[in-house]
Design goal:
The structure is a single chain. The protein is mainly α. About 70% of the residues lie in helices and about 0% in strands. The protein is built from 27 helices and no strands. It is rod-shaped and about 170 Å long. The N and C termini lie far apart (about 120 Å).
Length: about 650
């Protein structure tokens, strides 16, 4: 620090407060030592070489002498050197400095810093602050805590009532100055000296001074106004350059500028006031650049949106097969474009843009800047709903897909009897497409249509499932190659699906279930009647075999009749079933005393019930078909 290391008092080996006579005597003696090429005795030298290199030449000594002759220069130098109050404390501290023990000297003076500046310790404040300044730059990098303490201590002394006595002792009695002038001289000189110190910044000085209260604080802070304005302008220019090189990152740049200039603008406002031109111009520069970031971000984003958006619109408008497969192809082709659109839309973060505009509006100082903020806010509000572009386009694609689905399905429904199998496959494919659409980003207005479409397809699927099961049962009822006694077992899986879909009390379901039971019951009656007739007509030598056959057939009919009880039936048929079951039960009781021989097999052919004819149980038409035939084969061992 030049003001300390090259201080005129230090070059002359003097302390502040030395009389004119002492100054002249000391300077003459130093000239003699210099001319003789010798160093003055340590006890006589108050230049304190321990503080750093001390370069004394005839020229530097003459320059120091001339400055010490002028009151203003002498006063200036006194602010950055040590004053000899004649106290024992000062004497001890100066001896320590002469020995090079800087810490010991600092400790002596620091003990006297009691918090209040008095006539007894005022010069300890003055001397200690000078030594603290030196200690803050002793190393290669600024010791910020020592530097802050030095400024605080010196300002405290300059603000005290002891200043006037110091000025009188340091200068001629005719020299007039005040604390305001001396405070500015000290701070401005300090700022200039510290420019080359590593780790020091004007911001650090602003931070320290903002904490203090002293006479010329406002005047001194104005010294920072222009550097702050320059700093803000530099940040604005840097942001503008980066923004132009990467428009999509403009929102990020705007936020960074807002954050980076926040403290500087706040300090500038505190220094100059909110209406000062220097502040308003700086604030408007920041606000306008943030608005530029908003505009560039929005416009560049809209330009990037245009390509995938137009491609998707073309997909929707393009003539294509109005089929379920066409809808699937449409979604597959649109998927990567929708992803691309979403990525670009996400890059145009409208909430971030609106937030930036709000920040710019809060910074803008002039009416022109504020009006520009409002104009851009209005354009964003009335312009394209960026956040809804992706959802709208997704919904447009989905809507087109639904149109294609129902165009084909509607045609198939008209010919459902002929196209049932194809229709069922298309409905299943359509439901899969609907599930895929549900995972897309959609506008709320479209979700209602999607829900209705899903409900329609689900109902149609259920109806098709029921119709196919009904068709299967109708096929069973009309199948002349099927043993009627096995129809219940064959129909049960189909009836279960129909009943679950239509409800077990539905008339159609009850009619179908009853038709199955009726056919099985007729078969049971026919079988038992046949067995009874065979028994009646049998000659005596065949009676035993005929009675076995009758019991065999009654037991089989009873099992089938019991199975009918697991079905849902019309009430009128249930009455008929009870009557037949009662009759069959009576016949079964009559035959209960008869035990069939192990492995019994009727010696006469049992007819296939309900078909009115008789076939061998091992014929190709009947192998493995029907519950009744399977049971016959099992019993007979075939």
């Amino acid at each position: 620090m030049k003001s300390i290391l090259e201080n005129p008092y230090r070059i002359a080996g003097l302390l502040v407060g030395a009389s004119a006579r002492e100054r002249n005597t000391k300077i003459k003696r130093l000239r003699m030592y210099i001319e003789a090429g010798e160093k003055p005795p340590t006890e006589e030298d108050r230049g304190f070489p321990a503080l750093g290199k001390l370069s004394r030449t005839s020229a530097s000594l003459n320059e120091a002498a001339s400055k010490l002759d002028l009151d203003s220069d002498r006063m200036h130098a006194a602010l950055f050197w040590f004053y000899n109050s004649g106290s024992d404390s000062d004497a001890a501290a100066f001896d320590a400095l002469a020995r090079g023990d800087i810490s010991a000297a600092a400790g002596i003076w620091q003990k006297l810093l009691t918090g209040t500046v008095t006539t007894h310790n005022s010069f300890a404040y003055l001397n200690c602050s000078t030594l603290q300044l030196f200690r803050s730059i002793m190393k290669t990098t600024l010791d910020a805590s020592q530097f802050e303490l030095a400024v605080l201590t010196k300002i405290k002394f300059l603000e005290s009532n002891c200043l006037e006595d110091f000025v009188t002792r340091a200068t001629d009695e005719t020299f007039k100055t005040g604390k305001a002038e001396l405070e500015l001289v000290f701070l401005r000189t300090l700022m200039k000296d510290m420019e080359q110190v590593k780790g020091f910044t004007p911001a650090k000085m602003r931070e320290i001074v903002m904490k203090l209260r002293f006479t010329v604080k406002n005047d001194f802070m104005k010294d920072f106004a222009q550097p702050l304005a320059d700093e803000i302008e530099h940040m604005v220019e840097a942001t503008a350059k980066k923004r132009k090189n990467d428009l999509l990152s403009a929102a990020t740049r705007g936020n960074s500028l807002y954050k980076d200039t926040s403290d500087a603008l706040k300090q500038l406002k505190e220094i100059t006031g909110a209406t000062d031109m220097k502040y308003t111009e700086a604030a408007d520069r920041v606000a306008n650049e943030i608005i530029n970031c908003v505009v560039d971000c929005f416009q560049s984003g809209m330009e990037k949106i245009e390509s995938p958006l137009n491609q998707l619109k073309t997909l929707i408008d393009r003539s294509r097969s109005m089929t379920v497969d066409g809808a699937l192809a449409l979604l597959a082709e649109a998927a990567p474009l929708l992803v691309k659109l979403k990525n670009v839309v996400d890059g145009v973060n409208i909430s971030a843009v609106e937030g930036l505009l709000k920040k710019a509006s809060g910074i803008a100082a002039s009416s022109a800047a504020r009006q520009r903020c409002e104009k851009n806010k209005e354009q964003l509000t009335n312009g394209v709903n960026v956040s809804g572009i992706h959802a709208n386009m997704s919904s447009g694609i989905a809507s087109k897909a639904l149109d294609m689905i129902f165009a084909e399905i509607g045609g198939l429904v008209k010919n459902v009897e002929r196209e049932r199998d194809t229709l069922k496959k298309k409905v299943n494919d359509a439901l899969a497409i609907v599930e895929e659409i549900e995972r897309m980003s959609l506008v709320s207005a479209f979700e209602e249509r999607l829900a209705e479409s899903k409900e329609t397809l689900t109902k149609l699927k259920k109806q098709l499932d029921v119709q196919m099961e009904i068709a299967a049962i109708n096929e069973l009822l009309g199948n002349e190659g099927l043993s009627n006694l096995s129809i219940i077992e064959e129909a049960k899986p189909h009836l279960r699906i129909i009943g679950n879909a239509m409800g077990h009390s539905d008339d159609t379901f009850l009619n179908i279930s009853t038709a199955v039971a009726s056919k099985a019951l007729n078969a049971c009656v026919a079988l038992v009647n046949w067995a009874q007739k065979e028994f009646s007509d049998a000659p005596s030598y065949h009676k035993q075999d005929a009675i076995y056959t009758l019991k065999y057939c009654v037991d089989m009919a009873w099992g089938v009749t019991e199975d009918m009880g697991s079905l849902y039936l019309r009430s009128d048929f249930e009455s008929r079933l009870r009557e037949n079951k009662s009759s069959l039960s009576g016949l079964r009781d009559q035959l209960s005393q008869i035990d069939l021989p192990y492995g019994f097999r009727p010696s006469i052919k049992i007819p296939d019930s309900g078909r009115g004819n008789s076939r061998d149980s091992d014929s190709d038409d009947n192998k493995g078909k029907g519950f009744f035939r399977k049971l016959i084969n099992k019993v007979t061992g075939n």
